[in-house]
Amino acid sequence: xxxxxxxxxxxxxxxxxxxxxxxxxxxxxxxxxxxxxxxxxxxxxxxxxxxxxxxxxxxxxxxxxxxxxxxxxxxxxxxxxxxxxxxxxxxxxxxxxxxxxxxxxxxxxxxxxxxxxxxxxxxxxxxxxxxxxxxxxxxxxxxxxxxxxxxxxxxxxxxxxxxxxxxxxxxxxxxxxxxxxxxxxxxxxxx
Length: 191
Fold this sequence. Notes:
single chain; Transcription Regulator spoIIAA
């Protein structure tokens, strides 16, 4: 096991993969490397004895709600043999970015928290408890971050936090809100 020069300290290398789709990474994000390069880096990291974490981006610009779910779920499935853990990061609107320009032009909406919950459920099915999946709730419940409606944002955000801390999929269950119907219409609208 690779150590940081200290006894009992494990090293984990995190890579901002964002998507296993070379097309999404190139056209929506502009990452500048391929999935094959990510996999090669993971093999090198593992051969050095360190743990590997993949950062997965939910809903980069130019993807609809269903396509964002599909891309994140597929990415998690694709990294299941390479990464020891996954950090799901739902895109939020940062100042001075293309995403902010799209947001101001009503051409981008951050993910619904309903979609985040669905991706986390799918990740638990894929990993079957063998790997951790966490999701930071930065900007959740705000117009510039993942949100549902004001009635359920706090509870939905709390469910994501509880899951990330416990890895217990039951933390993702039990939310009921009228806005789920609106989300379902948008989520199910894809080509």
